[in-house]
């Protein structure tokens, strides 16, 4: 009953096997080999556009490099207060984009509202040198609250962003989960709605270690080669990432895995709907559930071996909670089984 | 006939298989799982000392984090002019240790001489604020010239370093190759001879992607956790690196692989010794050969499909070369076969 | 009727004259001359302690260097949301302390409350590498809201800070104004109450360009020499700053000037107390007044040549304002005359 | 007999007086006042071109900001090995342009030769990501060796620089001294010969603290506002710098002062020409003399109170020196008198 995080799972067997298959033979290094090039082409097909792709080792690297590519002196990056870049990356974004700052914006269920974004940007009038200057906006899809922005919500944010002349980044650590939740296409969820650059995550959805920066604006690609190398993210045997993505995309494995983990989350949600000891804090749009649970029930679950994290509740959620309740997070993965879920629910 | 680099090889089958074996089941993330801890213990056994180990994704990351852990304002890092940190890492060391500088030192066959090091450090008298302050010394073992420092040479450098009150880093991208060449122990080649921190490379010797920072001075370990995370080198499914090292150390696979690639280099060297078209620029101490070759012979080899790089010759080597000769580098790997070598030599 | 800022004034005649007096003769450069050393001693006398003093060119430099001297990877600096370091220094603090982050804390009248500070620090449990680690706390005295922390308020904050094992910085851009308002001593307002490092400002109080970093913890002094030089803040003819401070401290000129500007602010405040068109947003503790004023009255003042800035109102103040009112800031200086104030008040 | 450095002098009386004159009255801060604007215009007149001017506090700041404005990931800046940026600024250039590197080039008498520059740049082929990428070239005029590049020498370097698509910076800490030595115009010595950005120094030539960045390429001006503020170099009472430059340019004071100090250096040189105890290491082109002197004569001078520094000799100079000789540097200034020189020479 491991619901702590989707990164507690290992790798899907197809991914692991792909690494075995690619292990033999010689290939030119640092991303210039045939397999790397072939997989990069697959990205362009999937996104219905000629994109630039950069493999990196972690989601933090992808996010930080994306923001660093837009760096300006006194640069302000607008993000949700609970964004992974803001609270879970040990200042890597500030380090990669030296001298930049993250400006946190509040919003319920992990989402930034267009008005709030507009107001935040508005605090930096052009040429007010003391305050610095706006530099980029980043959103997470699916969000850190397990929700997913609708396509129209993305468009509405992009409109504010473009009006301010800024680039828009998407942290897609759980890109596939949001995608299958919305039932849309990768192109539609990104560049067609105004995304300029994407952190495309494979690790949380069944890979060992496979993350990619996808640049819809190829003019940033030349410098990204140097940014990536300078940040020690250019792998010599880069094909070990390519091989994972190769299997990931083959026969739409990635979508199947995301559908599975979303389904396990939905199965959990159905169970909670029938319980009087716990309820969802808000509806999920991915493989993450945030649940308000009675402390005794939580304790009982943990005693029976269930693993999950409690989570800090924002003021809006806190207002709906009783004193003897806790907010917890449950994450399912490609490796979660129906039996895992059902054991958990009966333990509840 | 691929002799371009040892990173053109893939992964040894045992390494790849280990990734398959570790793919199932759940484990706590970010390096806290059982496999990670077990492999860390193996490091302590191998180095005969209680070491702190940090898995990272690239040798550049290991080197840059090592130096960053010693960062001081105006800090000067002393290295060989042709050191990987100086010429092949796109300023990652300067980026990780913001505001620091690499001070290049010349020396034949890729080695720094104690006198030269002493003189270089001496240019920074204490409290001369304008020049900055010494911060660290880094050497590469095996060197970028394919040679290996003898144990006494390491001791002699360490003596200069300690006298200056500085820490000493070893870039061990080809650690195993130097180790088996010297026929010594990991402890003897490092902390027993004055090394404070080591970049321990597995990738060039048969892993997919397995590098480790080894801290003999554990007092730096606490901040290294933050340094690593901040540089986006903390892998969520960290066990994918641990699994590689697990196979790497099992039954001394790593030493066997290094012996093999060194042997292939020796076989090449023997071949060159019999040729009148090419000669070694200097004796090798690992799996890298630097060869002065007649241009027509080089061309003929390339036409027959041999892959290798030409290399900039230092002034001392240049003085021994004719106009119709070129300096080339040949690198063997765990995947190089006797047949590869013999085909190459007969093509010569 | 210039009330825009105290940095719109020039320099007090004694300060300017001191620069003339010091202009002749030769003196060793970079802060090693006799005048520099003598003025540094004066600092120690004034603070009743053997302090380390570093002259720098701007308050932003002093603040940023202070925080940089405590830098740690993933470091979090706690400050008031409206702190100068957070909103008026174009990310200089983040730039100087590469990879660090300012964590803004809300609080009425420009002050941080101990509970709020404690809660903010508490979000960074030791060894939770993802969030980074606490690094320093900074407060401003007088605050950006023109108020002054009482001595007990400083002690209460320092207690929280010390319990967390952190250093405490004071931004004293208007140090003298707060000092004479509280009627206390420099020692009492700083190290006796737990301040570790102080940005001591002279510029806003009658100097041309005279700021000093005062280190109560001399163990940081050695590296500060390098930090200052590396940030291009070590002046060759450093005595031009020393000469200003020399005049500044002579016969307690600095206290007289601060008393004067505070007095002018009080005179303004008295005037507002009698007006039905305007009222203080909160009581002042220095030479800055924040005033809620009727828009028509504001317009009339501006038409008559009064110069001042409007200011963003926090939620607590906004709640007390009518729609036809604006929050404005008025700053007096050593150069403000009673006539200036009286003209302004009668214009009102 | 103070010949240690031109920054041991104080300020010319006209400069000091100008500060007194400007001390009264109110003016808008941060470089937006009338005096600032007027002096900026004077710069455009002097340079016969509409330039962007940024006042800063130190030459190190000017140099570091200039290079930072061209920053690129993995950026390589080419400079003379003995350049002030390389050996006397405590890594400020590397700090301001985070992650960049200075590539030192050797050359006699403080000058870079076009061939050597071309070769140095040539080591960074486009798209070889490992080595990084060329970013800028910087030369010093007058050089750190007291020589001055001729106009044709500047043109020849600029040709190499432009061919490589790079910007060219001039460190003009002793700009006026080189200018009067060459007998040319500011325009001719800079943008007409290919300089893109200039550190224009006033401090060493009679100001207290007056340095300016002059941008011939105005497209860099917008970001420079933020770069300057972020580096804590935007002075609130910026007119204290403007006032110095105001006096500096009035009636060509700056040229008179430079002519005087150059003249004093020439007078010293004449004296050495008649001595058998000392000789010039190379001809001077400014107010700096490098002299090879017999140790006993050096000692005798010091005993009689002469103040100067000895200097590290390069290999070419060393080859011409005897064992009992030392290389020393003598610097004259606006404040050096004929009597100072004559006393020194008779002491010799």
Automatic annotation (TrEMBL), chains A, B, C, D:
What are the required cofactors? Answer: pyridoxal 5'-phosphate
Instruction: List membrane-spanning regions.
Output: none
The chemistry this enzyme catalyses reads: L-threonine = acetaldehyde + glycine; L-allo-threonine = acetaldehyde + glycine
A single Pfam family, by name?
Answer: Beta_elim_lyase
Ranges for domain Aromatic amino acid beta-eliminating lyase/threonine aldolase: 3-280
State the top-level EC class.
Answer: lyase
* Keyword annotations from UniProtKB, A to Z: Lyase, Pyridoxal phosphate
Keyword Calcium annotated? no
Which InterPro entries does the entry link to?
A: ArAA_b-elim_lyase/Thr_aldolase, Low_specificity_L-TA_bact, PyrdxlP-dep_Trfase, PyrdxlP-dep_Trfase_major, PyrdxlP-dep_Trfase_small
Q: Does the keyword NAD apply?
A: no
As recorded in UniProt, its EC number(s) are 4.1.2.48
Q: Which family does it belong to?
A: Belongs to the threonine aldolase family.
Q: How does it assemble?
A: Homotetramer.
Q: What does this protein do?
A: Catalyzes the cleavage of L-allo-threonine and L-threonine to glycine and acetaldehyde.
Protein name in UniProt:
L-threonine aldolase
Q: Which organism is it from?
A: Shinella curvata
